[in-house]
Amino acid sequence: MEQIESDPFKSFEFKEVLLHSSASIIRIIYRPPISVKNGLTHPAFFDDLSSLLERLVSSTSRLLLAGDFNFHVNDPSDNTANKFLDLLSCFSSEVCKVQTPTHKYNNVLDLIVTRSNEETVLNLSVNDSVISDHFAVHCTLAIKRPLHLKLSSPSHHINCVPLIQTTYGVIFVPPPYITHHPRKLRNSVTSMTRFYFPS
Predict the structure, then answer these.
(1) 8 A C-beta contact, residue 52 and residue 14
(2) Which segments in the chain show pLDDT lower than 50?
(3) Which residue ranges make up each domain of the chain?
(4) Hey, which of 53, 63, 155, 162 would disulfide with 91, CB 3.0 to 4.6 Å?
(5) How big is the chain by its Cα radius of gyration, in Å?
(6) What φ, ψ does residue 56 adopt, rounded to 5°?
(7) Beta bridge partners of 169
(8) Fold of the domain built from segment(s) 2-196
């Protein structure tokens, strides 16, 4: 895995990660909740997201956005969440169906977004990672990879890459908690690495 340098956005944190094993790019987003203190607004987020999607829609690679969008997409009466889903639809994209909450207050905030006509994400599940108030979203990606996968120690990249590539798929860790709980995250990553890559 390698982090790709990309232009920053004002309304959300954004990282692009190249998976060398498949030449696929995963884009990771963290949208902080709107507050008077941070001065962020929904219109600013929608403008920034539109700019990102305009750039990505012309790409021939698979679209894969993952992260904490902080929209209650499980609530059909949430107008802002519906506007977010409508914006994705305008770019022929959609949220992968998460059947269970991804947050301790029973909301679906942590999402994986793909193109509507692509089956990139398989076997989606949510597990309480005990790292934070958000749960880990697990999935298998329908992308080709070589027969031999070389493991580089995830602990060296723990502060910049909020995902772990395994032979079974990818585990997305909610981005804001990398800096808030680095020791818990490092211990969890080490345990998962030992499970998926026994010596």
Answers:
(1) yes
(2) 146-169, 177, 196
(3) 2-196
(4) 53
(5) 16
(6) -80, -25
(7) 166
(8) Deoxyribonuclease I; Chain A (3.60.10)
